[in-house]
Design a protein that fits this description.
The protein has a 7-stranded antiparallel β-sheet, with helices on both faces. A two-stranded antiparallel sheet has the order 1-6. Helix content is 34%, strand content 19%. It has 4 helices and 9 strands. It is of the alpha+beta class. The two termini are 28 Å apart. The protein has one domain.
């Protein structure tokens, strides 16, 4: 697996998608979040769909709060500039890219990071079928929470 040209922290890269897979992920994201893209130049920046108010999203501190409350088994990072998409095992808190999207595999939600943060963005949006998709994620999330608790307990007991 060839590593991407950018860095993400914390966590580790589980998978690097190839170019065709990255284009497919991008096309799927656009189908979900960009149905009404008239007037929003999403070719320049995908997050324009949110800044042009073509898809409902929360912004700034509220977006950050929503994002930091997420716990999924894996996260896809989709760069805006054509770099390869990756899967990471922890919620990315920093990335060397300036414009990118983060979301779980079923795209139940998305976080759009922008080079304009503080002025425009970040943006957090939920899929139109969020409740259904989030239920699908629930059992995975519960198993992950259980694993995190077991690791914390092991550390407290000095086993790790």
């Amino acid at each position: 697996m060839s590593q991407p040209e950018y860095t993400v922290e914390p966590g580790k890269v589980i998978r690097v998608y190839n170019e065709a897979e990255t284009r497919e992920i991008e096309a799927n994201w656009i189908r979900v979040y960009c149905k009404d893209k008239s007037g929003a130049n999403i070719k320049a920046y995908h997050w324009h769909i949110f800044s042009f108010k073509k898809y409902l999203a929360v912004e700034g501190e509220e977006a950050e709060k929503e994002y930091l409350s997420r716990l999924e088994p894996e996260y896809i990072i989709l760069p805006n500039d054509g770099e390869l998409a990756i899967v990471t095992n922890e919620l990315p808190k920093s990335c060397s890219l300036s414009d990118y999207l983060v979301f779980p595999k079923n795209m139940s939600w998305t976080m759009a990071r922008t080079h304009e943060e503080g002025w425009l963005g970040p943006y957090f949006a939920k899929h139109k079928n969020y409740k259904i998709l989030d239920r699908e994620n629930k059992s995975k999330r519960e198993a992950l929470l259980k694993k995190h608790k077991e690791i914390q307990n092991a550390k407290l007991k000095g086993w790790m």
